[in-house]
Amino acid sequence: MEDGGDRDAVRARAQGDLRFFLELARETGELEVIAGADPDLEMGALYELSLEQEDPPVLLFEAMRGCDTRHRIVANVRSALLFQDGQGLERVQSYRRQRKKKHEPVAPRFVNSGPVLENVLRGDAVDVARFPAPKWHAGDGGNYIGTECVIVTKDPDSDWVNLGTYRVQVQDAKTLSVSIEPGKDGDRIRRKYWAMGKPCPMAISVGQAPVLGEVAASTYGHHVSEYAIAGGRIGRPIELVQGEVTGLPIPADAELVFEGFMPPPEEEARDEGPFGEWPGYYGSNIRPQPVLRVAAIYHRDDPIVVAQPPAKPTKPGTYYGTAGTALLRAANLWDELEAAGVPGIKGVWKLPGGGPRLINVVAIEQLHAGHAKMAGLVATGCGGAAFFGRITIIVDADIDITKPEEVMWALATRWDPKSQTDIIEGCWSGYIDPLLPPGKRETGDVTNSRLILYAVRPFHWKDEFPKVNAVDPAYAEKVRAKWLDKLAFLGERGGR
Predict the structure, then answer these.
(1) Residue numbers of the chain with a pLDDT score lower than 50
(2) d(CA 496, CA 115)
(3) pLDDT tens digits, 179-223
(4) pLDDT (tens digit, 9 = 90+) per residue, 94-108?
(5) Which domains does the chain have, with CATH numbers?
(6) Cβ neighbours for 390, distance < 8 A, ≥ 6 positions apart
(7) d(Cα 225, Cα 452) in Å, to the nearest integer?
(8) In whole angstroms, how far apart are CA 345 and each of 83, 303, 325, 361, 398?
């Protein structure tokens, strides 16, 4: 890829065009084409094996067993190296720069036609089962076509169109179930329609430009247009067509879109799940979920489904490539901390094993008494961290938060369990939380507690805290440079 502006232009084009992205991934050697895999578990196993790599390849499944040979599935799109810069905190900062580079949203625009309208199926022709929907994990309760999808809903009280990512299970030829955690924007919107005695209009894209998958999975606040955010990110308007059934705006170049209405659950609900989620458990089990009655299907001649099924968050590739994308969420949290007025933020990180949400680490340069407490409370309760967190760790700026052993050292030597710990109760959680007790599940009480650990030198006597026993990093690098060509071990570094 070219440097500077050309590189940015190519990346923006790849973000806004799935097929161009695949061409580029093929050219750079990042694309792995897999022919003949079985959607029943084998594809899921191959996908999880790819996550043994810290930077997993882009997987393009074609000629899948029992499927139309024109249909394909691609995985590991948003974690592709094409969209990454640097390593460690450099990568988090890169995400922050990308978020801010096109800080002015670009409103989407409607067009008369687009590739998604190459095939329009209505009435008796609607058959969801025509399209590949793998069984990703052995314990899954069915086939899931939506794991990196974009679900489009519109607030009935305004012009706000929301994009969200929620799991979608195939129930039958004309029915999909959609699992949306309570409190998510998609849930708020559908409940408004149900309160009015109406079914909720909904469109589900299961193949689309990478940037749409990214913004749909991120948190921007109520009444913020993800289409406009995506347009700003790629420097041009997202082109939309109007759904024939609901009138909802659908990406004109989407690969495959299902459109219809979701009646209230008391009118129709189907057993959904279980489904292996990103915390590494079947936390949500089987429970009735609202369904989308599919009235129309739009698809390109040779549609590509974009997939990113969850996996246990201990595999190296899940850290950078989960649907939630851990480092992207770290960048979001960093921005939110600064926007909330927390000074002295030197880094935000997600510890491996906690996936994109469960363990947040924030490094600060302490500027005043109570600074660590301020950072901990905001990092635990602000928008990007409010849903389904578990642990927040605040450390001093000298801690390399990208290294778990450094974070553990800070905890072991600077954290006093009695005086430097907060436990916050009644926080927003979800059904995928494996620690949510059965009794709370039954009553719909999806709340949990959070732990905040202040592994920092106590502010009032931080200057008297024992000095760190370590070679000065700048001097160590001088010594490395001097001896590098004489001592082989000096060229061997751990980590990424």
Answers:
(1) 321-324, 494-496
(2) 40
(3) 999 999 999 999 999 999 999 999 999 999 999 998 998 878 788
(4) 777 776 665 689 999
(5) 4-307 (2.30.110.10), 325-464 (3.40.1670.10)
(6) 354, 357, 358, 359, 448, 450, 451
(7) 33
(8) 25, 44, 21, 11, 12
